[in-house]
Amino acid sequence: MVTVTINIKPYLARYMYVRYRQSLEPDPENQSHSSSPSSSKRLIPIHLSHITPVYHFLHQLSVPHPQNTSWKEIGNICFVLPKPRNGKNPEVYNYIGNDSALIIEKEIETEMKAELYSFLLDNKFNKGVMFKKSIEQIRRALRNGRTGTGRNSDEGISKMEEIGERRKSYKTIMKVY
Question: Which of 91, 104, 113, 168 sits 20 to 30 Å CA-CA off 136?
Fold first, then answer.
């Protein structure tokens, strides 16, 4: 199993760990390897299904490790690299550059927004729950999740609140017309 650690926005890393039911707690077996500047512990890698878009982005954007780059992995999210039957061997293609990490970050953010929007619409039209109450449900789920609490989790919650507020203001504007 070959893993890659990248640095993305903290609320997106938290979303991915909650979404794929992984723990943000470090793996006690791999305490000797550093995955972030402030921690001497390694994050548990996320195993993605072959039907997720992020899986294909990881596969397409992985390149051979450059010679002048450190082998020390620094980041806040860890993925298991795809091992397809045909194509790139993850033992060789095991590096994600900064530009590629930004593309993956953007795809994760798009996935999060699409899931949030789908959740909000389902609650509104099928369950009769308004957007504000749905956002409160999400906040409670994030706070009570297995991932713990902290400064970065509040950033993710405030981002979801911001999305909810935009939807609320859009609804108010549409009522006027």
Answer: 104
pTM over 0.70: no
Cα-Cα-Cα-Cα dihedral sign, residues 78, 61, 85, 108? positive
Element (H, E) at 17: helix 10-19
Residues paired with 63 in a beta bridge: 95
Distance, in Å, from the CA atom of 151 to the CA atom of 3, rounded to the nearest integer, reads 26
Write out the two tokens for 97: 């550059």
Burial 111-121, CB ≥16 within 10 A → b, else e: bbeeebeeebe
CA atoms within 13 A on the CB side of 156: 28
The model's pLDDT over 80-132, given as tens digits with 9 standing for 90+, comes to 888 777 778 888 888 999 999 999 999 999 999 999 899 999 999 999 999 99
Under DSSP, the state recorded for 49 is P
